[in-house]
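Memo to structure team: turn this sequence into structure tokens by end of day. - J.P.
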Amino acid sequence: KKGTNKKDVVLNMKNDNPILLKPNFLMDLSGDWGFENGKIPTHGKKVSELVRGIDLNLSGFIDDGVFQIEIFITNTFSNDSLIIKDEYQGEQGYFIQNIFIPANIINGIKNDFTVKISQNSRTDKKNITFSILKAGISRHVENIDIALKQMRYILHDKKNFMSDKSKKKDKEKLFYALWKDFDPTPGTDHNELMEEYYRRVAYANENFDGWQPGWETDRGMIYILFGPPDEIQRTNPSMTSSSLYQVWSYYKVNKQFVFKDQNGFGDYRLNNPLNHLDL
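Reply from structure team:
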């Protein structure tokens, strides 16, 4: 695919080096893309293919002399772990450095990197995220711990959740095992039901958040379980009532849910549904 990505870079030209610019991830692709030959920057939210690893392209402004680069990673298996620490020689007031990160280190769905540059007792740091599409896991899932908690609407009769102290790798195995029971096509890597479930979770987080994450709200719960309503009726304040209501109707399953705005700020709560919530 072709495209243009434009960014404004604002530099404070005071003598406050070192200055670390926003890092980029470089992946292998034949051709000259303006970086190291055969390397192209990726700006996608998630990358599906990662063979050897990735290059982290760093640049910025430094004084002449030695400076230090440290790279930390947080993901499913590591928590702010130092993976790179090395010294480099600065010349001409700036630096450009590619640092290779092996694939076995980037083993989480979401990998948060913190890059820190130090020189002459001064530091600067930037954060950047690299996400990977894993086979058998929805593209909407970025954190296994949270994804397990978000399953509570369909696992209310099961008690096989692990404690917060459980190992992260064990939680990922549990996540696979739970969703295997819900997989309509177990012979493939793609779980359609999981993808739809977490697509609804993502929609709820984007549209119903407020005092709490969207998936934990009453509207979020109903949307996750039943999908988009066939009709939404909204009431306006009247002379007799200042309350706001939303009525969601699902004709195919013959259900209707009434939500009342508790305080006028969009905090809609389930208000005795006309049809009981039979899951």
